[in-house]
Write a structure and sequence with these properties.
Strand 6 and strand 7 form a beta hairpin. This protein is 3% helix and 43% strand. Strands 8, 10, 11, 14, 17 and 19 form a six-stranded antiparallel β-sheet that branches. Strands 9, 12, 13, 15, 16 and 18 form a six-stranded antiparallel β-sheet that branches. By secondary structure, it is mainly beta.
């Protein structure tokens, strides 16, 4: 009987503990260490429980048991219950974008990326709910990007709608309790009074199609310096954007500066915009102003009393065609209650380097910002200054920056966390997360970039930027920044910027920026077999674990011999790396990076030494730049294809350009057809060769991996496989199916370049078609080269590409490209040049001509009748 009583008491106690484990709901105990059980138990046990459960057990046992138990149950509800239930800790999701999202119909994407931060122990699931306060929009999908990031896509948002997107973590513990935490995101619809993204306009591919008459817009003039519709880059190099603002592959408008004269203006005028019901309207638009001869872009508004300037921007605002577009927002409150038109006015600069572009125009009531930002460098060392640029849209008026990571973040240059574009530096190596909250009078938005900035733990870093000797002088690195170089005459190391003094060898600029400093071996002096040494200062590796040296090299020149790296850890120099022979084929070819493992030298102090060996001639300048000694880092994946347009079954070489020492590679190519790895290569080779058997667009991705981690670079629709409808490389002459016309009846007509006594002046190879008044300087030129008929009747899209070089003298030459859809009875001009233009690789979208048979005609004329230069074309293709 006594044994049965003890068993019953043990079971009761056990059940009580299990109930405590299941009832706590995730750790809400408030005991603080003393057992505050509200038990009515009359046990006289001398329990020393540190159980902090706020138990409300109504245990009414009237036991008078005098056991002197020393029960040491120490359940403090920090999820270490010794009972059978395991309690998860639920972390609130952190949303890093789409806070108070403003959706502008027809302009802004309605897909946003949210980050959920979960701290759970147990089984976790993610739940997302969509509730419409007003409106009928829908949550279309939630897609997992990776373990923490999700893309939420919604549609059907209309003016005045209000929605709540609840993002939560739902966690079930082992007792079956469901615990949840959530955050709400307000999504409001804004219907603009006017919106234009130019996506429905035609004229992409560099044609002369204008916005005039499209979507209610008018543009003037219609020749010369004018507004044009475009997709991709503009027809001129070194000016204009690389793509539109909306998607990067869509349509925008720009001022074509290849025609016209300095000071010319061109106007783009909108249809009427009704602001009669507006309260505080504003206009927002995106602009891109890259080009050394950019002049002026202005915005004017007319409410019936004439145009008034409300905004202007003068001069180059971007430094590269790939730079992000910039947005401006202009207050139009003074026009509320009116009907207006807006007018963009472009002013031409002194040359064709002046293409000005605009995109994504909207007129609406004020909207909350959409936060975005970028850093000028995301791979730095402690103490380096990083410039942050706010790229938020919808005119934020205040900013709050945050940085988290292993070290102290210091705001530099007098900037603070409240500045729009602050400067920061980092005290310790590691990964840093950057965040920005952008706010205006309507609302705010937050953007967080996790592990955005990598601060490297470097033992040595040299980019040569503080050395002197630019311009190819004989200044040596000897004695600068602790380096020693020898010999001091003859075949030696020198400091340079730009190209080396000898043509056909050396790089075109440094690796760091393209315009900075580097060192190289000057092969114009010395004799075959001479060597030159470049020796570093001491490098402390006493605290290193797996150090490596990373540097960039350029070895272009037919007499290039050998470049070696040696390391001395105290026992003399030992060779650890070398490269022999020409590695680049042009001074503009990309620098290459080398990685050398120095783990064998960890724990010691070393010097490194670059040894150059002179070849048999002066064409052997070898260059070195951006030397780093540090622990390994995650690679940064990148690559390039030998061709991005090709025919089915053509072989395309993929070249890995990843940096920071990948040791394995995985290529993924997706598209409409079968992808074959050629020449014995495979998806895991560093530089594979591929072919595709089906027409269409193919996406290429590369995952580059080393012992530290992996990075993936994806280029969407990167390679286009086509069936050419027309191809002519002019290797065979006379041409078949082509027509040559002597419009001027002078006897001077299009011919092959060798017949006219000149070289192929395009970027093409072999022969070119040429109209060359520089070769034949008498009689004048007016000649047309017309293609065979090209059948576009069954095509859905069409593109024209060709190599070109048009050079003019004193404005006396002209170049036209015309197209006909009626067998040559009438012609439409799609290209007109009156100034030097080339050599270029031209791409023109002919999609607007599908359904027809077309002819293409290239016409060259010189007005002076003398040596007015030339127009060469090559590799004409329609596909």
């Amino acid at each position: 009987m006594e044994k049965k009583l003890v068993l019953i008491l043990w079971l009761a106690l056990t059940i009580g503990v299990m109930q405590v484990g299941c009832d706590d709901g995730g750790g809400g105990d408030a005991d603080g260490g003393a057992d505050t059980d509200a038990d009515t138990d009359t046990d006289t046990d001398a329990d020393t429980d540190a159980d902090t459960d706020a138990d409300t057990d109504a245990d009414t046992d009237a036991d008078t048991d005098t056991d002197s138990d020393t029960d040491t149950d120490t359940d403090t509800d920090t999820d270490t219950d010794t009972g059978p239930c395991v309690d998860p800790v639920v972390g609130d999701p952190t949303v890093t974008s789409a806070l108070n999202v403003a959706v502008v119909m027809g302009v802004t994407s309605d897909s946003y990326t949210l980050t959920f931060s979960e701290d759970v122990f147990g089984v976790d699931t993610t739940s997302v709910t969509w509730a419409a306060t007003t409106g009928s929009g829908t949550l279309d999908s939630i897609t997992a990007v990776d373990g923490a990031n999700y893309t939420v896509a919604f549609s059907g948002v209309a003016d005045g709608d209000s929605y709540t997107l609840t993002v939560g973590t739902a966690v079930e513990d082992t007792c079956g309790n469901t615990l949840a935490a959530a955050v709400d995101i307000a999504i409001a619809g804004f219907a603009p009074y006017f919106a234009e993204d130019f996506e429905t306009m035609t004229g992409s591919g560099g044609t002369a199609d204008e916005p005039n008459g499209q979507n209610g817009w008018t543009s003037s003039p219609t020749t010369g310096y004018e507004w044009r519709v475009e997709t991709g880059p503009t027809g001129s190099s070194d000016t204009g954007p690389s793509g539109d603002h909306t998607t990067g592959t869509g349509t925008y408008v720009y001022t074509e500066a290849s025609s016209g004269a300095t000071g010319d203006t061109t106007m783009l005028t909108s249809p009427s915009i009704d602001l009669t019901g507006a309260t505080a309207p504003q206009i927002g638009f995106w602009y891109h102003m890259y080009g050394s001869n950019i002049d002026n872009l202005a915005l004017e508004v007319n409410d019936g009393s004439g145009y008034t300037n409300v905004w202007t921007m003068t001069g180059e605002q971007h430094t590269d065609e790939t730079d992000p577009w910039l947005q401006t927002v202009v207050d139009l409150t003074s026009y509320a209650g009116s009907t207006i038109t807006i007018q963009f006015v472009g002013t031409r600069g002194t040359s064709y380097y002046g293409d000005i572009a605009i995109d994504d125009i909207f007129v609406s009531e004020p909207m909350p910002p959409i936060a975005e930002f970028a850093a000028n460098n995301t791979l730095v060392v402690p103490g380096d200054i990083v410039d942050l640029t706010d790229l938020s849209s919808n005119a934020p008026t205040s900013w709050a920056w945050t940085f988290t990571g292993p070290g102290v973040v210091t705001y530099e240059g007098g900037t603070t966390a409240a500045d729009q574009d602050p400067q920061v530096s980092f005290s310790a190596p590691g990964l840093y997360t950057a965040g920005l909250v952008a706010t205006n009078s309507v609302g705010n938005d937050a953007e967080t970039k996790t592990d955005y900035i990598t601060v490297l733990d470097l033992y040595f870093n040299e980019d040569f930027e503080t050395m002197t000797g630019s311009g190819g002088t004989a200044d040596e690195p000897n004695g600068q920044n602790g380096w020693a170089s020898s010999p001091a005459t003859g075949y030696e190391w020198r400091v340079d910027t730009g190209t080396t003094p000898t043509s056909s060898t050396g790089p075109s600029g440094d690796h760091t920026t393209g315009s900075g400093m580097y060192v190289y071996t000057e092969a114009s002096s010395g004799v075959t077999g001479d060597t030159t040494l470049l020796t570093s200062a001491s490098i402390d590796l006493t605290g290193a674990t797996a150090p490596q040296v990373r540097f960039w090299y350029h070895m272009y020149g037919s007499n290039t011999d050998d470049l070696a790296l040696e390391v001395d850890g105290g026992s003399g120099y030992a060779a650890v790396w070398n490269m022999t022979g020409e590695q680049q084929t042009d001074d503009t070819d990309s620098w290459r990076q080398a990685f050398v493992d120095l783990t064998a030298f960890a724990g010691s102090t070393v010097t490194i030494q670059f040894v150059g060996t002179r070849g048999a001639g002066i064409l052997g300048d070898m260059a070195v730049d951006d030397i780093v000694v540090g622990e390994p880092v995650v690679p940064a994946a990148d690559f390039v294809a030998s061709a991005t347009t090709a025919q089915a079954d053509d072989i395309i070489a993929l070249t890995d350009l990843s940096v920071d020492g990948p040791t394995s590679w995985l290529w993924t190519i997706t598209g409409p057809g079968t992808v074959t790895f050629e020449s014995g290569t495979s998806a895991t080779d560093q530089h594979p060769e591929i072919s595709m058997d089906t027409v269409g667009l193919y996406t290429v991705a590369l995952a580059a991996t080393n012992s530290i981690g992996s990075d993936t670079e994806t280029k969407t629709n990167y390679i286009q496989i086509y069936v050419p409808l027309l191809f002519e490389d002019f290797e065979t002459w006379p041409l078949t199916g082509w027509t040559i016309i002597d419009n001027g009846v002078t006897g001077n007509v299009w011919d092959r370049n060798d017949v006219l006594g000149g070289i192929n002046r395009t970027n093409g190879t072999g022969y070119s078609a040429a109209a060359d008044s520089d070769a034949v300087c008498s009689g004048g030129w007016d000649t047309t080269l017309t293609s065979p008929s090209v059948d576009l009747t069954t095509a859905t899209v069409a593109t024209l590409t060709f190599e070109s070089n048009f050079q003019d003298f004193a404005g006396d030459g002209d170049a036209w490209l015309d197209i006909s859809t009626d067998g040559g009875s009438t012609w439409t001009n799609i290209l007109y040049w009156t100034a030097d233009y080339g050599p270029t690789s031209e791409t023109w979208d002919l999609t607007s001509y599908v359904g027809n048979n077309i002819l293409l005609a290239w016409t060259y004329s010189d007005n002076g009748g003398g040596c007015e230069w030339y127009w060469h074309i090559d590799d004409v293709m329609v596909f």
